[in-house]
């Protein structure tokens, strides 16, 4: 039972935190007024994609935590979550596209570092982060393109 309680807490932290930050920093008129590249997805796609990714991030973190709560992998996991939660307030809240690009590049590096760190010991956690890495790589390109165009 305690195993599932800890999973629930990871889900609440990650999914709840991500959704709360997402709602607090909705794109709004400023984002709508920006020049965006032709590969910019429709706005409705972001919430379901991020919700699924947040569930995967939580499960990966929970699995790594169960293996060793004080491991370097968990420190990296915590860093990527902090960077993830920082990006929206930087980009949408403060409207700072340049600093947001720095944040998202650091986020991508931390995601890749987590994958590398857990790959041998906890490969499922690594695989759960692969779609996350792909999405954040795409989001990095999108952030850079919007910065360049505006």
From TrEMBL:
UniProt keyword Kinase, yes or no: yes
Source taxon at top rank: Bacteria
One GO-annotated biological process of the protein: tetrapyrrole metabolic process
Gene3D superfamilies listed in its UniProt record: TspO/MBR protein
Membrane-spanning segments: 44-64, 76-94, 100-119, 126-148
A GO MF label: kinase activity
Pfam families reported for this sequence: TspO_MBR (PF03073)
Keyword terms, alphabetized: Kinase, Membrane, Transferase, Transmembrane, Transmembrane helix
Family label: Belongs to the TspO/BZRP family.
Name listed for the protein in its UniProt record: Sensor histidine kinase
Organism of origin: Mesorhizobium sanjuanii
Lineage summary: Bacteria, Pseudomonadati, Pseudomonadota, Alphaproteobacteria, Hyphomicrobiales
């Amino acid at each position: 039972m305690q195993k599932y309680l800890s999973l629930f807490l990871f889900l609440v932290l990650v999914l709840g935190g991500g959704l709360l930050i997402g709602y607090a920093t909705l794109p709004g008129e400023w984002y709508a007024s920006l020049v965006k590249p032709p590969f910019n997805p429709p706005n409705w796609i972001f919430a379901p994609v991020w919700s699924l990714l947040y569930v995967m991030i939580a499960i990966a973190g929970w699995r790594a935590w169960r293996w060793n709560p004080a491991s370097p992998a968990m420190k990296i996991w915590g860093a990527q979550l902090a960077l993830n939660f920082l990006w929206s307030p930087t980009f949408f809240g403060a409207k700072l596209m340049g600093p947001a690009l720095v944040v998202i590049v650091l986020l991508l590096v931390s995601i890749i570092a987590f994958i590398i760190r857990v790959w041998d010991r906890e490969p499922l956690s690594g695989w759960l982060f692969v779609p996350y890495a792909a999405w954040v790589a795409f989001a990095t390109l999108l952030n850079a393109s919007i910065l360049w165009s505006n």
